[in-house]
Design brief:
heterodimer; A: 257 residues; alpha/beta; Elongation Factor Tu (Ef-tu), domain 3; Rossmann fold; 2 domains; seven-stranded antiparallel beta sheet; 6 helices; B: 303 residues; TIM Barrel; eight-stranded parallel beta barrel; four-stranded antiparallel beta sheet; 9 helices; globular
Chain lengths: 257, 303
């Protein structure tokens, strides 16, 4: 796997919610290689550690990558200050993404909050065969619902406070969807408790389930072992896998929750 | 063009820039950015006799001008290091430095004995890992402990030995002198400084291990000071590390007395740091009419 570093001009920047930003950069080499569910390490001026941000979308023809990120701390706060015409120093594409096997299958995508972006390019492959279940805290925090609809997917929305869509959890909607018809595969990204619940439902029904995890990261390429996720070994033991290199996407059965 | 070669206790390095243990894996990942043959050497991820899982996450945290880590010596054990780590790296044309840790003197003796029969060029003995209960730092913080480990490994090693020292002591030069007296071929310093960060909202330490090792630009002045103190005290070569992020930092470290340097946390900020340091160092030597990189070692002019 070849890793690339590009100094990427910001072509488009939009604030989506109070905390979330939508940034498209020119990154011709990385855009040609990027796969659904991979991420990039973005350098933040004045900080030692790059910030791992999932790739929301890629356009190999235009040579662009799209990132949707939320301001969570000082690094992402700096990223939010970078304007159109300025540049970002980006390493990527990194990690093992979602295996998007067959668009003819019926896929369910489950995204929680800022875990939603890396699912977009995958949902597009499945188009009308994709059901996208999105969960947010409140109506004002909803992101990308329109983009998923444009990708041809059926979108089911939930919010914790009931201000948009179903009042409650994504797992309510997942159960509803699974009750309506067959599902061949589930892809999920979001907070760990959500992933655990989704993985549990998938496991009970024998549906293959892939989850994208996040962890504090340093090198981003598997050299420092700074990002760890406990997984099961083939021999029945446990080990720490590296989220950056072995993931960020894992088979839900592999993860020790 | 200046001569960048360095002879480090009998091992010829093509240049003085070494990837620091724990930040550079076994070299493979960074070889995807640039050929690791550019490096003078690679100090491999710390190896123990048996496989170690490492600490639960989170293992890393940002700090002002640096980072904390508490990886906890995750490694596949010495057998797999020999099978999976050494052969590939040895073929790349860079000096291969094994880095070893143990929880007892016997561990250190056994692992050094095993590695003496391999193709590694040198063994770095880590008596300074702050992140595991039995990662050697209990030996590294006293002269007696440091001497005991050095004596044990000296007795069995057929490779040059580099003892890696912890800065979490009152007088690091005293420890360096103690390991020199037991036959260490060189010393490397500094390992990380013990630190801690707390999430003010959850009131939890950011690292699951509660404490971790501080590295990055924040520690550079501490490292330069310690390298200077140690180089002034011992006759064996000193390998300097701690916060080197640009070529000027490497020059500073060498002026303080380092014969070679290791680059660690800066690889995370910019994976091309070693290459940039090398290019800058070479330019500095040429601009100043210095023929050999060794000519700047220890050439600080203290007031």
């Amino acid at each position: 796997m070849k890793y690339l570093q590009e100094i990427c001009p910001v072509l488009k920047k939009k604030r989506l919610t109070a905390a979330a930003y939508d940034v498209t950069v020119a990154a011709p080499q990385m855009a040609a290689l990027a796969k659904t569910g991979q991420f990039a390490q973005i350098r933040c001026e004045g900080f030692s550690l790059r910030r791992p941000i999932s790739i929301c979308d890629m356009d190999p023809q235009k040579g662009t990558l799209r990132f949707v990120f939320e301001v969570r701390g000082e690094g992402t706060a700096w990223m939010a200050t970078v304007e159109e015409g300025e540049t970002l120093d980006i390493l990527g594409p990194l990690g093992r993404g979602f295996e998007i096997t067959d668009g003819a299958k019926r896929a369910v995508f489950v995204g929680g909050g800022i875990g939603t972006p890396p699912l977009l390019s995958g949902a597009r492959v499945y188009g009308k065969n994709a059901t996208v279940i999105l969960g947010f805290r409140t109506a004002d925090a909803v992101i990308l619902a329109d983009d998923f609809e444009k990708a041809g997917a059926r979108v089911m929305l939930s919010t914790d406070d009931g201000t948009a869509g179903h009042p409650g959890m994504v797992t309510d909607l997942l159960l509803e969807r699974l009750g309506q018809g067959p599902c061949d595969v589930i892809y999920a990204c979001g907070p760990k408790p959500m992933l655990k619940a989704v993985a549990g439902l998938a496991l009970e029904r024998g549906i293959p389930c892939k989850v994208s995890l996040e962890e504090r990261m340093a090198c981003g390429v598997g050299a420092c072992l700074g990002c760890a996720c406990k997984t099961k070994t083939p021999k029945g033991g446990e080990r720490y896998a590296q989220v950056c290199k072995n993931g960020p996407v894992f088979d839900a059965k592999e993860v020790v929750w | 063009m200046a001569d960048l070669r360095v002879n480090l206790c009998g091992v010829e390095l093509k240049n003085p820039v070494i990837g620091a243990s724990g930040t550079f894996g076994y070299g493979r990942e960074y070889n995807e950015f640039f050929p690791v043959s550019r490096m003078g050497g690679v100090s491999c991820k710390g190896t123990t006799l048996e496989e170690r899982m490492g600490n639960p996450p989170p293992r890393v945290a940002e700090t002002p001008a640096g980072m904390l880590n508490a990886v906890g010596l995750q490694n596949p054990g010495v057998k797999r290091f020999i099978l999976e780590g050494i052969p590939w790296l040895k073929k790349q044309g860079t000096a291969v430095i094994a880095n070893v840790a143990g929880s007892s003197v016997d561990d250190y003796r056994e692992i050094v004995e095993i590695l003496s029969d391999t193709d590694v060029d040198m063994i770095e003995v880590n008596i300074s890992c702050p992140n595991v209960k039995a990662g050697g730092v209990q030996f590294g913080t006293t002269c007696a402990g440091a001497q005991e480990v050095t004596r044990a490994v000296r007795g069995v090693s057929r490779k040059p030995l580099m003892i890696k020292l912890t800065p979490n002591v009152t007088d690091i030069a005293e420890i360096a002198a103690a390991v020199e007296a037991e036959g260490a071929d060189c010393v490397s310093l500094i390992n990380t400084l013990l630190g801690m960060r707390i999430d003010i909202h959850t009131r939890r330490p950011v690292l699951h291990n509660n404490t971790g090792g501080l590295s990055g630009p924040a520690v550079l002045p501490v490292a330069v000071r310690m390298v200077w103190q140690v180089a002034s005290r011992v006759k064996i070569p000193v390998v300097g590390m701690g916060g080197i992020a640009k070529w000027q930092d490497a020059v500073e470290m060498m002026l303080a007395g380092a014969s070679a340097v290791q680059i660690g946390a800066a690889n995370f900020t910019d994976p091309f740091t070693p290459v940039k340091v090398l290019e800058g160092l070479e330019q500095y030597l040429d601009d100043n009419g210095i023929e050999r990189v060794g000519d700047i070692v220890g050439k600080v002019k203290p007031w």
